[in-house]
Amino acid sequence: MSYSVGQVSAFAGVTVRTLHHYDRAGLLTPRGRSHAGYRLYSDADLARLQQILFYRELGFCLEEIATILQDPQANALDHLRARQRQLREEAARLQRLAEVAERAIEVQQTGVSLSPQERFEVFGEIAFDLSYATEAQLKWAGSEGHRESMARAAAHSKEDWRQLMSEATAWRAELLAAFDEREPADGERVMDLAEEHRLHISRWFTSCPPAMHRRIADDFAADPRAFALVVPPSQQRPGLAAYLRKAVHANAARREAHRTGRPEGPGDQQPGRPGEPDGHSFEAAQGQH
């Protein structure tokens, strides 16, 4: 059976121009012609084209393919083995490049310029969720606080992160103890812990006024990925994120009352009141890893 160049093009998923090029190169010259002089491909031609496309997919140039097809029994296996080695080397190179790209993405999105081994050593169970980091990056990219936090986080040395994490671990132990002992979230002890968290963020990442701290705590309560940056899942308790949120809001109201000299009231615990500075930072949300 014979096939026109258009039919072969459709069968093989290659352009007519490519088939003409293979013909001019002597790689695939159809055996038949129509009465009008058009190329006609036989079943044997299609089998040869299949071989050509197979070798092209493996990355062989046309000259190499021509050599292989001239004496397939003698040359094909050696050529395939050589190409296999090249592909494996290329795959390993691309894997290294992918790891470098992933590392660069992590540094850009989390601000933590430590190697994977150093991250494990310093952060332990705490893991960075890049989906959350990406969302935060997009959401807060225009925030001055976010930019400052990213810059400061990227500048932290391994020892800085060790000290930061040591403070965070001690703080987390106090929070868990207060929660387990059923201390009220709006009591002095837990509000003081909320204030420690706010100051920790300011010390290590970016200035964190009460309004920002409220929004960070809201994020902890709403998004498990955010709260996992504060308390790893293995240490979490049901209701703990909401407990911390309540403490942060209570502490923010307490500070506002002290600043203005007026009594605290329910309205003091509402986030984002008019006149408060707007802003958020992914790194601020990491302030107590």
From TrEMBL:
Keywords: Activator, Coiled coil, DNA-binding, Transcription, Transcription regulation
Compositionally biased spans, kind Basic and acidic residues: 253-262
Gene3D superfamilies according to UniProt: 1.10.1660.10, Antibiotic binding domain of TipA-like multidrug resistance regulators
Entries under PROSITE patterns matching the protein: HTH_MERR_1, HTH_MERR_2
Start and end residues of each stretch annotated as Disordered: 250-289
Residue ranges that the Swiss-Prot or TrEMBL entry lists as coiled coil: 77-104
InterPro entries per the UniProt record, alphabetical: DNA-bd_dom_put_sf, MerR-type_HTH_dom, MerR_fam, TipA-like_antibiotic-bd, TipAS_dom
Residue stretches making up the HTH merR-type domain: 1-71
Taxonomic superkingdom: Bacteria
SMART domains: HTH_MERR (SM00422)
Keyword Membrane attached: no
Protein known as: MerR family transcriptional regulator
Originating species: Streptomyces luteosporeus
Lineage per the UniProt record: Bacteria, Bacillati, Actinomycetota, Actinomycetes, Kitasatosporales
